[in-house]
Amino acid sequence: MSSREQFSSKIGFMLAAAGSAVGLGAIWKFPYMAGSHGGSVFILLFVICIFLISLPVLIAEFMIGRRGQADVITSLKKQAPGTPWYWIGYLGMFVSAVILSFYSVVGGWIISYLGRALVFAVKPAEGQTYESLFNHVIQSPLETIGSQFIFMLLTIIIVQAGIKSGIEKASKIMMPALFIFFIILAIRSLTLDGAMEGVRFMFVPDWSYLTSETLLLALGQAFFTLSVGISIMITYASYLGKSENIVGTGINVAVMNIFISLLAGLVIFPAVFALGFKPDQGPGLVFVILPAVFEQIPFGGVFLLIFFILLLFATITSSMSLLEMVVSVVVGEKRRSRVRTSWLVGIVIFVMGIPSALSFGVLADVKIFNKSIFDAMDFMTNNIGMPLGALFISIFVGYYYKTDISRKELNTSQGIYKGWITLIRFVSPVAIIIIFIQSILPLFK
């Protein structure tokens, strides 16, 4: 049996993990969540929750993966023989597949907009608005499914090439490009007249927004933005050498995620305020408001093109981690063909996503729990699957692991270890349970 492939460098692993975490959560969801819930207060709570709740679970997933050196199910069977803990892996596999099925739909929207941006045709036709253009894109069966297929094709091509030649290589190109071009876009946005209003919105607190609702939303954003709870990070860490410092790597991933989220805010909010738009536009902020903002900026078409390229990069770095999680389980210890498995799993997930792609058009009247198919898949994974997975992981590492094992795996100071074990045993599980209860309560109303 051949040895398990590993990341060739610490930076390769860190960029891949950060890429998985960044995704649409940081660039698409973070700005509209912050914009709709007071800006600075939401951002402050988000950062606090990242370090107190999400990061401990992220480190726990790194610990399981590096110690197991195998796919998540095999890793858990090795570390907890004769117990049902390995079902965490099956939960993660299922949730990852469902997330990718509708995530690829949004990736397809980005492909559609990128194609338009390449020929500077994002501006709607006479008599149309940016909102009607967006509705046209998401309601067109041929365009939506075709773009979704192209997005999945790109994801499969990267994952089937393996860890070093596929995921690591792509991450080393996409993530630095993401950082560099976002800084360029942020500088351009900050030089607009009136841009400081957007900066104040982000960094000067309006304490009237300090409510339990804002706290819960920030908690949920911090939790989901690091990709914890679906065993992606367990999978990535299984390709990591035993000598790597998982605490330091976890902190670096969290900091990069916060940095990209803030950069996304600095691209969007100064421009939104400078040009007289409102920040609380919701999910349409990127696809509806942002093109209108860039239209009013000199060379706006070029900057909009750069933005959608970056958004595609961020989305693919997340989609390839979702696909890799499922592929690694199917390949398993039997070392099935990675290439064949990647194509088979990718095509199955593409087909799974077709109903979500059509849920804004021909299947718009089909409802699940009074939600569209797309929204139902989103709710089932983000509000139920991910919190449950993270809760089981925190309990497994916090209570099933013996302290001498977890202390050895962390290989850090006594103070840091005590702080982490307290958070993973008490703070993270309680916060996750609160998120879970608050998330499912609407189903019973």
From TrEMBL:
GO terms for cellular component: membrane. PROSITE patterns: NA_NEUROTRAN_SYMP_3. The chain crosses the membrane at residues 12-30, 42-64, 85-111, 145-163, 175-195, 215-239, 251-277, 297-323, 343-364, 384-401, 422-444. It comes from the Bacteria. It holds the Pfam family SNF. It is a multi-pass membrane protein. It is found in: Membrane. The keyword Signal does not apply. Coiled coil: none annotated. The keyword RNA-binding does not apply. InterPro entries: Na/ntran_symport (IPR000175), SNS_sf (IPR037272), YocR/YhdH-like (IPR047218). Keywords: Membrane, Transmembrane, Transmembrane helix, Transport. This is Transporter.
